[in-house]
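for the record, two folds in this file. i put them one after another cuz i was lazy. first one right below, seq on top, structure tokens after. the second one comes after a little note so u can tell where it starts
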Amino acid sequence: MKKIQLSDGAPSDIRRTEVSQKTKELMDNTKKLCKKSGLSYVEINKALYLADKELYMEKISS
């Protein structure tokens, strides 16, 4: 199984000022979609977890 780097060594408390503009755009778009969905926090958190899991599996299998 291929290993991928999950962190760039940054602290677990990442601030908005410490990330790239593309990362900020992704974060803002994700937040907008979550709010627009009308789902509860628990449902949003589950969806984010599953999306992250799928992205991870795609990376390690490529």
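(here's the note) second protein begins now
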Amino acid sequence: MGVRRVTKSIGEHLWEFAMEAVGEMVLSFLACILLGGLAFMAYLSWAVNPRLTVAGTALAGVALAHGAWVALRRRPKGTEDAPRRGIAAITTGFFALTSGVTLFLAFYASGCNC
């Protein structure tokens, strides 16, 4: 009885280890593809029109700064439960999405050899 339970436990741990390794490989592969796609888009954008690329980057920086300011500042008393509307909601969502993609790339694309 004891040998069967130990064997089953070892098999479960090996299966879990294999699935985690496969998951890490898939996430690293997706991060490398995303990083390569972003670099290719930046290259194409710069090749087509450098001025428009700089202007778009500046606009994205302003939107990120506004989204970070709205997301991280303290809200006035009495408005804690009020939803964000308009530009504040858009820039906060843009900031959240960009932050999530940046963290994903920092964790998984840092070890990629692409």
